[in-house]
Write a structure and sequence with these properties.
Shape: elongated
Radius of gyration: 29 Å
Oligomer: single chain
Strand order of the largest sheet: 3-4-5
Strand content: under 5%
Number of strands: 5
Helix content: 55-70%
């Protein structure tokens, strides 16, 4: 059959006229969380996989029902149902590929250029989800009326594409439907290999079951082998997915970082190397400002922004002495943690001291804390250091109440 005839009589071309523009528009509205790091860029394409797989599954069901109604397999028995399926589902598979490429291109143009290439594993796994829905649509459409089969796959594809992500009790389901790495990745993260493997294994389980069901002619072996293959592959997928819970990322290999300097040691990822000279200069300025009030940054500092600016560098280095997590005493059930109040004030004081502009800090931090930090900065250097040391004790020890009042340290400094 000619390609023009396939496109004119099938649903793929007509669906593309609606699907592709909608996906381009949707992707353009959802680029805020994307950073200039290829795994992050690539993972954003998984957001739209639910739409694509639903549309392609419905198109495959429509084609299967149409061919069954027309008796194609009876009219051309020598070709076999599998070869007929490959021919007629080809345009639907191409639709799925185009529908993935279009929003990916939108996302790529919305972020700054970055070295490297798109993550092929994420893109391939996402496309495997689309192929699984096409195979399932072919199976369902051949057993239902034309409109009912397409509607069933459209609803099922949409629900399966987005519903698991909302389930708190069964978080591992997202690693089967292709949404496991949607929230990937920070600059220090890679997509979870287990998550990707679980998705592709489950998708191949569906494809294999449908292929066996279409290729085998023996009435006993066909359902037995199809069900056995699907069960075994699904078991493997569950073994990979269940232990992950919500986690769809893994730590990036730290050997890729380049660390230079001391106190603090500045560690940069490959995406940040083009700004190494500027980052080192800004880091030295911030370190000197902290040293003037007796504060030592963390021994090693890295940055989450692929292209950090002066404010970002100052903020990261200045606040690096603060712990990333609350102390164990604060994690006990019913425990009170007065260090929260101190942490908020110290963060503001460290930021301003390290050179972060007040206008920038005010966009993401309480104004009361900024005002208190400014009062502390007006104190003599010795008093500022005493305020910092005293209140850092409450950050690390739940039994120590903070003393944030500047007056307490003014008296000490003048006595």
């Amino acid at each position: 059959m000619r390609i023009s005839t396939l496109l004119r009589s099938g649903p793929a071309a007509w669906a593309a006229l609606v699907l592709v523009p909608v996906l381009v528009w949707f992707s353009a509205q959802n680029t805020e969380s994307t950073i200039a790091y290829w795994p992050s860029i690539s993972s954003q394409t998984t957001i739209v996989v639910g739409f694509i797989s639903a549309a392609c599954g419905a198109g495959a069901a429509w084609e299967a029902a149409r061919l069954r109604q027309g008796g194609i397999t009876v009219l051309a028995p020598a070709r076999g149902s599998l070869s007929v399926a490959v021919l007629h589902l080809g345009p639907v598979a191409v639709l799925g590929l185009i529908a993935m490429i279009a929003p990916f291109a939108v996302i790529v143009t919305s972020v700054a250029s970055t070295p490297g290439l798109p993550n092929p594993a994420i893109l391939a796994v996402s496309y495997s989800v689309v192929l699984a829905h096409i195979a399932l649509g072919w199976f369902v459409g051949a057993r239902m009326p034309k409109l009912l089969g397409a509607a069933t796959m459209l609803i099922f594809g949409y629900l399966w594409g987005f519903w698991p992500a909302a389930l708190g009790g069964l978080p591992w389901l997202r690693h089967l439907n292709g949404q496991g790495v949607t929230e990937c990745c920070g600059l220090d993260q890679d997509p979870s290999i287990r998550s990707l493997a679980a998705t592709v294994t489950f998708s191949l389980a569906i494809v294999a079951a449908v292929v066996l069901s279409s290729a085998l002619r023996h009435r006993l072996w066909r359902p037995l082998l199809s069900l056995t293959g699907f069960t075994v592959a699904t078991t493997v997928a569950l073994t990979l997915a269940v232990p992950l819970d919500f986690q769809g990322t893994q730590a990036r290999d730290t050997a890729l970082r380049t660390c230079t300097g001391q106190n603090p040691q500045i560690c940069l990822w490959p995406e940040q190397n083009t700004r190494r000279a500027d980052i080192s200069h800004w880091a030295e300025e911030t370190t000197a400002q902290l040293s003037a009030v007796g504060v030592t940054p963390a021994r090693q500092v890295e940055f989450g922004d692929p292209q950090p600016d002066k404010t970002n560098v100052a903020s990261n280095i200045a606040t690096s002495p603060l712990p990333n997590e609350a102390p164990p005493c604060a994690l006990r059930q019913g425990a009170a943690y007065p260090g929260d109040e101190a942490m908020i004030a110290i963060y503001a004081w460290l930021s301003l001291t390290g050179g972060v502009p007040k206008s920038d800090l005010a966009q993401r931090w309480p104004l009361e804390a900024i005002s208190l930090a400014e009062q502390i900065r007006a104190l003599p250097t010795q008093a500022q250091h005493a305020w910092y040391e005293r209140n850092m004790r409450s950050v690390h020890d739940c039994a120590v109440l903070p003393d944030l009042d500047p007056a307490s340290y003014t008296k000490a400094a003048t006595s």
